[in-house]
Amino acid sequence: MATSAFNKWVQDGRFWRDARPIAETKVLLKAAHPHTVVGSPALTRTQGGIQTDDSHLHASPPLDHTPYSADAWPDPLPGYVVCAIDYMDNTGGLDCGALFTRWLADCKAGRRPWTKYLIWQGKSYSVRNDWVAQDADGHFDHIHESVRTDWIEKSIGSYNPFGAARLPEDDMRLIIAKEKGDARVYVGNGVTRRHIANQNDLSNLQHWLKKRGYTADEIEVHEFNPGTLDGVLGALLRD
Fold it and tell me: What distance in Å separates the CA atoms of residue 117 and residue 104, rounded to the nearest whole number?
């Protein structure tokens, strides 16, 4: 059954964005492990692109996989912001056992000050409990991370959960644009991005993509305004 929080979110247009530490981590994860996935196989892109499913969206109380979590801490959510991410073990070379050991040590040492709690192998470790292990359900195939709300607008800086590479500047601009509610849509092939402002831009990009032989699977779309994705892809791909 849909909760009042879910119904209000739908009524307000189903807007959402990731907390900045999550948005940045997704970019770094894709760079380090391009064949992994974000979110468990059961979680699908629904409700305007958010990576979650109905069980999370309709849960009472709603938690951090939704943009209206009742567990926001230590501050209230500044709008519809998702504060959770799942890292799937053994996908694209991701070794959650090794990562978790490092991440928990970094949390305890203050090197991951944005992390609210981690869940792995049936145990939860929270800053609110001094990182002492507590029993939790499941999470044997993925690490769950929740982010503090006082870090929603802050960057993780030079920290890279997966290696030494820095966050590309183009990706940082996209993250900040989404935080500001930028309604523009950026489309590219994963390397080159184009700003789409009008139909003429769409026509030029369509020609650019076809000339280089790009297919639908190779087109990366960053959606800032719910409801625009289908129209943009349709305009790009039709003859």
Answer: 9
Q: Which stretch of DSSP H or E encloses residue 86?
A: strand 84-88
Q: How many whole angstroms separate alpha carbon 207 and alpha carbon 234? A: 14
Residue 148: both structure tokens together? 């503090």
Structure tokens at 133: 């292990």
Q: Is 133 helix (H, G, I), strand (E, B) or coil?
A: strand
Q: Phi-psi category of 181—alpha, beta or left, where left has phi over 0 and alpha has psi -120 to 50?
A: left
Crossing angle of helices 20-32 and 169-179, rounded to 10°: 150
Print pLDDT tens along the chain (239 aa).
678 999 998 888 877 888 999 988 888 887 888 777 665 443 444 334 456 778 888 899 999 999 999 999 999 999 999 999 888 888 888 899 999 999 999 999 999 999 999 999 999 999 999 999 999 988 988 899 999 999 999 999 989 998 766 776 766 766 776 666 654 555 443 434 455 555 566 566 666 666 655 555 444 444 434 344 444 444 444 43
Cα separation values, 235 from 21, 156, 183, 192, Å:
33, 36, 17, 19
This prediction's pTM: 0.72
CB 100 within 8 A of CB 94: no
Tell me phi and psi for residue 24, to 5 degrees: -70, -40
For residue 203, the surrounding DSSP H or E stretch is helix 199-211
Q: Which residue in this structure is represented by tokens 């990576």?
A: 51
